[in-house]
Amino acid sequence: MRHCFPKEFRWLIGLILIALIGTGCGTAKVQVYQYVDAETNYPRSVAILPFSYDSKIAEGKRPHRILREVFFSFFSYLGYSDLPLDTIDRKVAPTIKAGVNLNDLSNSQLREMLGADAVIRGHVMNATNFTAGIYAETSIKAKLKMIDLRTDEVMWETEHNELSHSSIVMPAVIDLIRDQVDNFEVREAYHRAAESFTLKVLKQVPDPSSVRQNEVHLPRIESIEANIQGNSKLQPNDLIYVSMEGESGLTAHFDIGSFKSHIAMKEVSPGLYTGSYRVKKGDIIDNALIIGCLTSKQGLTAKKFYKGAMAVIEEARLPVEN
Amino acid sequence: MLALTLTACATNLQSKVAGNLNQLSKQQTVAILPVEVMEAGQKETAAMFRQGLYANLKESKFNLLERYVVDGLLKQNNLTDPAQFLNINPMKFAEILGADAVLIGRINKIERSYFVIHSSIKIGVSVQMVDTRTGEILWRAEQTESDFQGIGKIPTGISSIILGPIQFVTNKLNLHRMTSKLVGKLTSIVKNPDDAEKGETFEKPLIASAATRDLKKIEDVHNLEAEWAEDVAAYTEVPANLNDTEEDFISDSAGNIQTKLTQLTTQPPASESEEMQPTPVKWNPREESSAPVAVEPATTIFAQPDKVTVTPVSIAPKATVAPLKKITPPALPQYTIQVGAYKTQNNASKIANQLSGKGYDVFVTQYSKDGATLFKVHVEKFSDKEKAYQLANTLSNKEKLPNFVTTINPG
């Protein structure tokens, strides 16, 4: 070491090391009890329950709601089928209204109520936000855990304190002022803290994406036919008739380009779906392809284009100027 | 304040949306594709950028196709290189992913620089959302986010002058923070397209180049087909037996329409769910830019010379038919029923013979254009239009022959 660095640079190396050590901070510790592998029957659908919060936290600032919403937004990136928050809230509302604490419900009761394989429970233990001239701080301290409702097992749990602060020890005055200003916007400050909290936690949460990728299959569509012909011009009262062959027992619809979507189709015989749309006065369709769509029970939709013709309403085409 | 303005982290955002972005609703699904990178070292930021897009657009008006579904389907179709995505027709993505729109993103640059008392980070991205049903670009944006640490930010002490820039450029959290900030600004217009100002909307619909190319091909094919269809009428197959001719629609025992479709027709208003009934073929006579150049007197080609004849009525200059002879058209138009048009004389003869065998007065005319010849089979001639329609009905009902009334020598 002595031979490598001249004396005058040693203090600089020391400073660099201190900086590097400083940058290594800020990870969340997630205790994982079950990892994802191909053999594991890992939960598919997950419901993020309303987070509870400590009584000392002022309800008006709602850090527990912010954390739940942010966690949900980012959690959807992982390979779970997450129930929308409003759906969960709608389902648990009668229970909460009846004065029952969600923490008192058994896992089987929750499973029946939500129809999910697993739940994430959250409790915000502390949340702070204050700005005092040369010091600003926002923090969220919370406990989260994911429980498999089918086995009552805890999949993972964490307790993390996300702290964002700015003070005179900051390297630049401009950053200090900026941080003070930013911290003054309470909701945004909590949002940023919640985002940091979430990203750190999710980095360590098992993600079944790679396993589930192999299970994805769109419904099969064999063929699609329509009664419009190449270059034919539609007029009001014309009937666009579409038939599609594919997997039986599914839900089908067709689109006319982006002009009209989700026109219902009926399964007239196993695997044969038909539907029609009558052109109305004022409809504007220009070079629209007919698209047959078949949706599986899992909610995955397959599409097939009818390329035999493009739907055009004569009036939709503006005259070409010379 | 001046210092703050000059030294705060800079954002350069150029974003434009299409009016049709508003048409997307919770019924529509958008797939956020893996993000393209310029260098291998940008992969982590690309993943974070994509995660940010998912998180931010979760609140938008449309549904997002789950990431594992997108990645799984792309993998199944061997589309694992994000650099290819812009060259792929969006319609292909619709069929592969079942999505109504795709969001294609790219990390253009991540630049970190360090000069002892100054360091900076710059991140540049571009995104494009394309409607897979139409190829229309719904949103296109390019953004650069940059920040620095150094003298310009007024260090709080001597050590900060040295430490600040090092800490800034080495701390991964700074890049994450900037990426997060960038995505928030970038997606705000998509979450609230109504708030887009005039300069932030496309003046006219913009179609992705990959889609334009393929749509043009489809349109060209349709134009050619339509041009040919005008020439060859609607049917070219000879019925094996006139009385056994299949209808265009076949109903099952429950009365449900089974399969074949016929041409589009205008019908009286009815509910959207109604089933289409078999309809006569619509005939749009082709408009000729010049008068027929010649008409050849009847030439007998069938066993019953008095009934079945071939008469070229309109011949292109190059057509090699009978010698040209000028005839004087009758004062009034004559109506006839056309029951078929065939590319080969043999097919026309078959149906003509079958009909003449049943006692109809049948004749065949030859029509040529651009080197293509067509043999049209006609039944009877009437000066009274009504009588022509009566026979047309008889031919439809009794012989199950699609047909239409036309004139053979308009007055």
Molecular structure report:
The complex is a heterodimer of chains A (322) and B (411). In chain A, β5 (118-132) and β6 (135-148) form a beta hairpin. Chain A starts with 6 loop residues before the first helix and ends in a 9-residue tail after the last strand. Chain A is built from 7 helices and 15 strands. By secondary structure, chain A is of the alpha+beta class. In chain B, α2 (43-57) packs parallel to α6. Chain B has 2 domains: 2-213, Rossmann fold (3-Layer(aba) Sandwich), CATH 3.40.50.10610; 299-407, Alpha-Beta Plaits (2-Layer Sandwich), CATH 3.30.70. The interface between A and B is large, with 86 and 86 residues.
Topology:
The complex is a heterodimer of chains A (322) and B (411).
Chain A: H1 7-23, E1 30-32, E2 45-48, E3 52-53, H2 63-75, E4 81-82, H3 85-97, H4 107-114, E5 118-132, E6 135-148, E7 153-166, H5 173-184, H6 186-202, H7 209-213, E8 221-226, E9 233-234, E10 239-246, E11 251-256, E12 260-269, E13 272-278, E14 288-295, E15 301-313
Helix pairs in contact in A: 2-6
Chain B: H1 2-7, E1 10-17, E2 29-32, E3 36-37, H2 43-57, E4 63-64, H3 67-76, H4 90-97, E5 101-114, E6 118-131, E7 137-150, H5 158-170, H6 172-191, H7 209-232, E8 299-300, E9 309-310, E10 335-342, H8 345-357, E11 362-369, E12 372-382, H9 385-398, E13 404-407
Parallel strand pairs in B: 2-4, 2-5, 3-5
Antiparallel strand pairs in B: 1-7, 5-6, 6-7, 8-9, 10-12, 10-13, 11-12
